[in-house]
Design brief:
Layout (H helix, E strand, L loop, with lengths): L1 E7 L8 E4 L13 E3 L4 E3 L1 E5 L6 H17 L26 E9 L2 E9 L4 E9 L5 E7 L2 E4 L7 H7 L6 H6 L7 H9 L1 E5 L7 H16 L4 H12 L6 E6 L10 H8 L4 E10 L5 E7 L5 H19 L2 E4 L8 H12 L9 E5 L16 E7 L2 E6 L12 H6 L14 H13 L1
Parallel strand pairs: 5-16, 5-17, 11-15, 15-16
Antiparallel strand pairs: 1-2, 1-6, 3-4, 6-7, 7-8, 8-9, 9-10, 12-13, 13-14, 17-18
Helix pairs in contact: 6-8, 8-9
C-alpha cells in the first residue's frame, strides 16, 4: 500500500513536496475509493493536473528515479556517478545540495518509511524505519561517517557495511546480502511500484516488451486470464474488436544468433498479437477477420498497452504510474480505466494508480473524490503540489471542472495576447523576398 512520496531538489522541484495517498477525513463521499486493511487506509488512485511544464511528469519521474536507484545501486561500481542526481537548477547553490526522496508504504501489514539523500557520487543520508506498532523502530541509519543498525536487525551487518560503496544504497546492499528485515521493503520498492509506463504511450521499447509479454501469455494459453480480461475490456470499450489472439511468428535475421542466444532472442517475440473483427456475409451470417495489432489505431494500441499493465497490477495489488493516461484515448475510455481501480469488486487486492492528465472530464465527483485530485503549479519557478481537498472553503455544489478551467484552483496556463503585427511583418518580408 503506497501512502506518500516526498521530493526535494529534483528537476523542477526545489522545496520539499509531498504527494499523499492518505484520505482526508472531511472528504466522506465515495468511500469505496479508499483501501482499508484494518490498520491503514489509502486512496486507490490519484490524478495529477497542471499546465504544460508545471512539473507533473517530473513528479512521476522522481518516483521512477527513486525505484530505479534502489533496484540498481547494488551493482554500481566504484566512482560511478549516480545517474539520478538531477538537482533543481534555478537556485544558486542547489547543485551542491543533495537530491532528497522519501517514501512511506505498507508491506505485509507493516508500515515503513525510507528516506535517501544523495549527491552525484555518494549517498549522504539514508534511513529506514518500520512501525510494527505505533512507535517507529529503526532498522538502519547511515550517513557519510558510518552506519547505525537497529537492535532487531540480524545478519552479516559488518560485512555489508565494509563492502558498501559511497554510491550504493544500504537497503539494496543489505537486502541482496540476505539481511532478512530489509528484504520486504526492498521487494516492495523494486517490484510493487510499476513505473515502466512513465513515458507517454505508446512509446517504443517498453511498450514492445509489454505487448511481447502479452502475446506470449495469450499464445501459449488461449484460456489465459489476460486474454479473457482484454477480450472483455475491448468489447466493453466499444472498439469494434471482438477478441484478441496471438499467432506464432517467424523472426527475421536470426542467422546472426546461434544456440542459446537465438533461443533467448526468439522466445519473447515468437508470438504476434492479432485482433478479431467481424464481417457480415451475403447470406446474413458473420465471419471473423484477423487484423495485425499494429494496424489498429494509436488509441486502440495505447488502450491495450495500458489494459495489459492494469491487468497485471490488479492481480498483484501493485501501484501503477502512468504519464498522460488520456493520451490517444477518448475520455470515456479514460473514465473506464479509472473506474477499474476505484471499483472494489474489480480491484480486490488494493492496486493503486498515479497518473497525469489534462482531461478535465475525469474531475467527476461521481468517479473521483476531491482528495484524489492533485494539482502541480509553478511558484517562483519551482513546482509545488497540492490537492483539491487542501483548498479551504469550497462548497459541495460547485462545478469542479468549470472552476478549474476558469483558473480558480491554479495549475492552468495564463495565455497572453498574440501580437499579430509580428506575424504580419513576417508575411510581408516573405512576400518581398
Amino acid at each position: 500500500m503506497f501512502l506518500s512520496f516526498s521530493i526535494a531538489n529534483y528537476r523542477s522541484i526545489n522545496e520539499r513536496q509531498t504527494l499523499s495517498f492518505l484520505p482526508v477525513s472531511r472528504v466522506q463521499h465515495l468511500p469505496d475509493n479508499v483501501i482499508s486493511n484494518g490498520h491503514y487506509e489509502a486512496l486507490r488512485s490519484i490524478a495529477l493536473y497542471g499546465r504544460n511544464a508545471s512539473g507533473k511528469s517530473n513528479t512521476l519521474l522522481a518516483v521512477r528515479a527513486f525505484c530505479s536507484f534502489v533496484s540498481e545501486s547494488n551493482i554500481f561500481q566504484l566512482d560511478e556517478y549516480i545517474p539520478y542526481y538531477e538537482p533543481y537548477r534555478l537556485a544558486v547553490g542547489n547543485e551542491r545540495q543533495p537530491v532528497e526522496f522519501e517514501i512511506e508504504f505498507v508491506a505485509h501489514t507493516i508500515r515503513y518509511t525510507y528516506e535517501v539523500h544523495f549527491m552525484r557520487n555518494e549517498v549522504v543520508q539514508e534511513t529506514l524505519k518500520m512501525f510494527p506498532k505505533l512507535q517507529p523502530q529503526l532498522l538502519f541509519s547511515r550517513d557519510t561517517t558510518g552506519c547505525e543498525w537497529g537492535n532487531s536487525v540480524r545478519g552479516n551487518k559488518k560485512s555489508v557495511q565494509e563492502q558498501l560503496l559511497p554510491n550504493q544504497l544500504l537497503l539494496s546492499k543489505g537486502a541482496n546480502s540476505n539481511i532478512e528485515l530489509l528484504q520486504a521493503p526492498y521487494r516492495y520498492i523494486v517490484s510493487h511500484v510499476i513505473t515502466d509506463l512513465y513515458s507517454r504511450i505508446p512509446s517504443g521499447i517498453g511498450d514492445t516488451q509489454v505487448l511481447a509479454d502479452a502475446a506470449k501469455s495469450i499464445g501459449t494459453d488461449e484460456n489465459s486470464a489476460l486474454r479473457f480480461f482484454l477480450n472483455q475490456v475491448l468489447i466493453i470499450a466499444d472498439t469494434d474488436i471482438y477478441g484478441i489472439v496471438a499467432e506464432k511468428t517467424q523472426l527475421e535475421a536470426m542467422d546472426v544468433f546461434s544456440g542459446k542466444e537465438r533461443s533467448e532472442v526468439r522466445e519473447p517475440y515468437s508470438y504476434r498479437l492479432k485482433t478479431i473483427h467481424r464481417i457480415r456475409n451475403e447470406d446474413g451470417s458473420e465471419s471473423e477477420v484477423l487484423f495485425d495489432f499494429f494496424d489498429e489505431s494509436a488509441g486502440t494500441q495505447a488502450f491495450v498497452i495500458v489494459a495489459c499493465k492494469i491487468h497485471s497490477v490488479l492481480l498483484s495489488g501493485a501501484t501503477l504510474i502512468i504519464d498522460e493516461l488520456s493520451l490517444h484515448l477518448h475520455p470515456e475510455l479514460s473514465h473506464f480505466l479509472l473506474r477499474l481501480f476505484n471499483d472494489p469488486t474489480v480491484n480486490i487486492r488494493g492496486a493503486q494508480l498515479i497518473f497525469t492528465t489534462h482531461d478535465v472530464t475525469l474531475m467527476d465527483e461521481k468517479v473521483i473524490r476531491r482528495d484524489q485530485i492533485w494539482f502541480v503549479e509553478k511558484e517562483d519557478n519551482s513546482s509545488i503540489l497540492y490537492s483539491l481537498a487542501d483548498i479551504k472553503g469550497l462548497r459541495k455544489e460547485i462545478d469542479i471542472q468549470e472552476w478549474y478551467m476558469n483558473g480558480r484552483f491554479g495549475a492552468v496556463p495564463k495565455i497572453g495576447k498574440f501580437d499579430t503585427t509580428l506575424i504580419k511583418k513576417g508575411y510581408e518580408e516573405t512576400v518581398e523576398k
